[in-house]
Amino acid sequence: MAAPNRGRRPAGAQGRPGRALGLILIAMIALTGGMFWAGQLTPRLGIDLAGGTTITLEAKNEPGKPNAINETNMNTAVAIIERRVNGLGVSESEVQTQGDRNIIVNIPKGTNSQQAREQVGTTAQLYFRPVLTVAAGTPTSPQPTPSASASGKGKAKDKQTANPASSGKPTATATTQGRAVSDALKAPTPTPSGSASGKPATTPKPDPSASGGTAAADKLQKQFLALNCTSKTARVAAGANVKPSDPAVACGKNSADQWEKYVLGPAEVNGKDVDDAKATIDQRTGQWIVQMDFTGGGSKKFEKITARLSQQQPPMNQFAIVLDGEVVSAPSVRTTLSANAEISGSFTQQSAQDLGNILSYGALPLSFQEQSVTTVTAALGGEQLKAGLIAGAIGLALVIIYLVAYYRGLAVVAILSLIVSAILTYTIMALLGPGIGFALNLPAVCGAIVAIGITADSFIVYFERIRDEIREGRTLRPAVERAWPRARRTILVSDFVSFLAAAVLFIVTVGKVQGFAFTLGLTTVLDVVVVFLFTKPVMTLLARRKFFADGHPWSGLDPKRLGAKPPLRRSRRVSSAPTDPKEA
Fold first, then answer.
1. Whole-number pLDDT of residue 360
2. pLDDT (0 to 100) of residue 207
3. How far apart are CA 170 and CA 186, in angstroms?
4. What is the 3-state secondary structure (H, E, C) of 117-146?
5. Distance (Å, rounded) from C-alpha 49 to C-alpha 108?
6. What span, in angstroms and rounded, lies between the C-alpha atoms of 290 and 280?
């Protein structure tokens, strides 16, 4: 007599349904708790459902720069456009790349779409302004007491930094190649605007002639003293609607990542005067630096401003590089510079490349062409959401009607499985909003509706396999277990094909179609989870109930209605040899 195979479970053996049901219950509770913990009780809605404007920009190569479209430049453009859109006062805008040359800008309702279109695709405002005064980024009293100390992001590269008047401050020097040494954001304190001695004094008022009069100078001083650079609203307001020919106040961060505020003179060089700028490694020190080349006209302007600034005391020997009203760098100048300059400091590769891109391309590292602009009102978005929900409800109702009419009692299993799938899908979509920025748009709703049919198809496959086993003459409990391996194989193959199609669609498409592909792929994965951890265990438990086990006409498993054969145990032949020793 052969020993039984203990290493493999027989096809008709029953598993432990309680474990699987407990696992999926824990998952649902955890996801629901995560929603409340994150404060995100509803999925994040896309522009086409919530209302707003979607702008699609396509990158174009600049003449003479055929390889400008790359990941670094695209990421730099995204960061600049995002800051520009946020400057409009938009709190929930989205700027992201699509493919290798597209940028999608989603601006929620309540924003001037025309103003947004003008901001996101145009070259930013990049100016070189002389620094008049620098102070800490918090509001100050009318008569601040300045300190003579100063700090800098980079160190000077020559021995002149030993001079107490400039020690510890970023400097710029010129050689025969026109190098500017050391770029840094420093934190000096106010000094007199006309002082050459560097002695402390009260906060100066800008020259009235530069601002159009004493009243304008007083207004600028009050604005500077009250400016709080830690407030995003205040920073945006400070740089708004400032003419290049007028003095301005602006904010910027120093090397310690702390905000500072500046009084800046009129712009003397703009971004168009920079011909090229790139990050490179200084062969002498091994540090990252930024090399700048100016145009013909830009060289003359830069030479003029550096000649004047090199004669000033800190902080008035600095020029600020101002991008969209914010100081991104403020190097100091030692001597006159001309066509070529070099900015150095405590750069990393990324920070050097970012500054090089800003200088080289006048903010945006690429030229962009507006491909499409879609504006959806809040009312229209609400109508589309309502229509999508109605369509989903109709599709779900039709599926339920079919299941009840054809499978009767088994429809309870299918409906419960659909409910579990809906809970998992809803909670995951709600959490993906703050997690990865997922937004439920109209194509994504369509993907969820299609998923109803995919999920129902898995139930139907399993139910039909069970019915096939009953038709062969088996009772319900072994039929449920024997049908599972065959159904499982079919379900996995079907869902794999669906997931593969969703993945390919997600990769090769851009924009809203990706929402459809993402939702389809997500619900396909959840279909496998629900069938394995809920539908199968529930069927195992119901097979022990008399209503289903005895084949009640409304159970959907009535052997007579299914045309079942006589039970297999009755079809076996009785051996002619006596089995009872007493009969022998």
1. 66
2. 47
3. 7
4. HHHHCCCCCEEEEEEEEEEECCCCCCCCCC
5. 10
6. 6
